[in-house]
Design brief:
Layout (H helix, E strand, L loop, with lengths): L1 E7 L2 E8 L6 H6 L6 E7 L3 H14 L3 E7 L8 H13 L7 E6 L1 H13 L6 E5 L2 H7 L4 E6 L2 E8 L4 E5 L8 H18 L1 H9 L7 H16 L17 H10 L7 H19 L4 H13 L12 H8 L5 E2 L2 E2 L1 E6 L2 E5 L4 H10 L1
Parallel strand pairs: 2-9, 3-4, 3-5, 5-6, 6-9
Antiparallel strand pairs: 1-2, 7-8, 10-11, 12-13
Helix pairs in contact: 3-4, 5-6, 5-8, 6-7, 6-10, 9-10, 9-12, 10-11, 10-13
Length: 356
C-alpha cells in the first residue's frame, strides 16, 4: 500500500492507495474515526458490485452502515436528491457523531461530500472513489456540490474528506472508455504542473501501468496547487480548471448525456490550447504534442459535426470561472506551466470551439 498525506489549509488527511483495500476498510476508517452509525452513498452501477464487501468490513469493526443508492449518472446531482438522502439518514438514526462514505465516481463523491457538509451542519466524509478520474482528481480537495439547471456544481460547499481510500483492484473492472476519462485529468495535471510526468505518459506502456504510483503523483500535484488556496480565492486553485471552461459547456450542451466528463475536458483542453497559441505563446508543436497524447489514451479531439455549439456559449455565462462578467481563462505557454488570463474574449473562445 502507498500512503500520501494531503495538507490543505488547516486540514490534513491521508490518501491510501493499494490493492484489496475494500476488505479492510473498516479498520482503516476506525484508525481515524470512532465506530458509529454511517451512511454508504453509492449508485445503481457501483453498489451491487462493491457495497456488500464494505458493509461486511464496517460491521465487523463496530460500525452500523446504512446503504443509500441513487440512480447512476450526473442527473442525480441535485438539491432534491441531496435532501432525500439526508431524510433517509435521519430515518436510519444517523446523528452528529455519524459519518458518510461516498462509494463511486465523481458524481457520487460530489453528492456524498455535499450531503456530509450539510447534514447536522457537517459530519465526516470518507471518499472511496471507484474510477481513475475520481482517484486522481475529484476525491482530492474538498470541493462538493450539486448541479443547478444553469450549470454544473453551482450549489456546493468546501468540505475536506477525513480519509480517501483508493483500491486499485477496482480499476481492473473498468471499461477502457472509463479509464480514458481518468487519463484526461492526468494529462491535464501534466500540462499545468508536471512536464516530467507528461513526457513519461508519452512513453507509457498501456499494458503495464503502475497505477499506485501514478495516482500518488497526481494526488501530490493537485494537493500542492490547492494547499494555499483551498476556497479558490487567490487564483492558484483555478489553474486546475485548464480545459474545464469549454469542457463544462460541452457537458451542459448535451444535458450530460453522450459525452463523459473526461471526454469533454479533452475537447476543452484542445480549445484552451488553441486560445493559448494566440494569448500565451504556446507553440503549434506543443499543441500538437498534447493532441497526440490525448489520442493515445483514446480521448476525443473533435466534436461531432452536428454538435449544438451555440449551447456551449449559452452555458458559459453561468460558469463559476467568470467573475463580474469577466472571463478568467486558464492558458498554457508551454507544457508544465499555466496561468490565468483576463485577456481572453468570448470571440477567442468561439474561434477555438469552431476549430473543434
Amino acid at each position: 500500500m502507498v500512503s500520501t498525506e494531503v495538507r490543505i489549509g488547516q486540514y490534513s488527511y491521508s490518501v491510501l492507495i493499494g490493492s484489496r483495500l475494500l476488505e479492510t476498510i473498516g479498520d482503516a476508517i476506525k484508525r481515524k474515526l470512532p465506530p458509529s452509525r454511517c451512511a454508504i452513498i453509492s449508485d445503481t452501477n457501483v453498489a451491487p458490485r462493491f457495497a456488500n464487501r464494505i458493509q461486511k468490513s464496517l460491521t465487523s469493526t463496530g460500525f452500523e452502515p446504512t446503504l443509500i443508492t441513487v440512480p447512476a449518472g450526473e442527473k442525480s446531482k441535485t438539491l432534491e436528491q441531496a435532501g432525500a438522502i439526508c431524510q433517509q439518514m435521519l430515518e436510519a438514526g444517523l446523528d452528529r457523531q455519524s459519518l458518510v462514505i461516498g462509494l463511486g465516481g465523481g458524481v457520487i463523491g460530489d453528492l456524498s461530500g455535499f450531503v456530509a457538509a450539510i447534514f447536522q451542519r457537517g459530519i465526516p466524509h470518507v471518499q472511496v472513489p471507484t474510477t481513475l478520474l475520481a482517484m486522481v482528481d475529484s476525491s482530492i480537495g474538498g470541493k462538493t456540490g450539486v448541479n443547478a439547471r444553469a450549470g454544473k456544481n453551482l450549489i456546493g460547499a468546501i468540505h475536506q474528506p477525513a480519509l480517501v481510500i483508493d483500491d486499485i483492484e477496482i480499476l481492473k473492472t473498468l471499461p477502457s472508455r472509463e479509464l480514458s476519462q481518468g487519463f484526461a485529468e492526468i494529462i491535464k495535471h501534466g500540462i499545468i504542473a508536471g512536464a516530467e510526468m507528461f513526457r513519461q505518459l508519452e512513453d507509457l506502456d498501456l499494458n503495464n501501468v503502475d497505477f499506485a504510483q501514478l495516482i500518488r503523483r497526481n494526488v501530490e500535484i493537485k494537493a500542492r496547487i490547492i494547499a494555499n488556496d483551498e476556497r479558490d480565492r487567490g487564483g492558484e486553485r483555478a489553474l486546475l480548471n485548464f480545459g474545464h471552461t469549454v469542457g463544462h459547456g460541452i457537458e451542459r450542451a448535451t444535458d450530460y448525456e453522450g459525452i463523459s466528463h473526461g471526454e469533454a475536458v479533452s475537447l476543452g483542453m484542445i480549445a484552451a490550447c488553441d486560445v493559448s497559441i494566440n494569448k500565451a505563446g504556446l507553440s503549434q508543436k506543443e499543441r500538437d504534442t498534447i493532441i497526440d497524447l490525448l489520442r493515445k489514451f483514446g480521448l476525443p479531439t473533435k466534436l461531432p459535426t452536428d454538435f449544438p455549439r451555440q449551447k456551449i456559449f449559452d452555458a458559459l455565462k453561468f460558469d463559476k470561472k467568470f467573475e463580474g462578467g469577466q472571463i478568467r481563462f486558464v492558458v498554457t505557454p508551454k507544457i508544465g506551466s499555466v496561468r490565468l488570463s483576463r485577456d481572453v474574449t468570448m470571440e477567442d473562445i468561439r474561434k477555438a470551439v469552431d476549430e473543434l
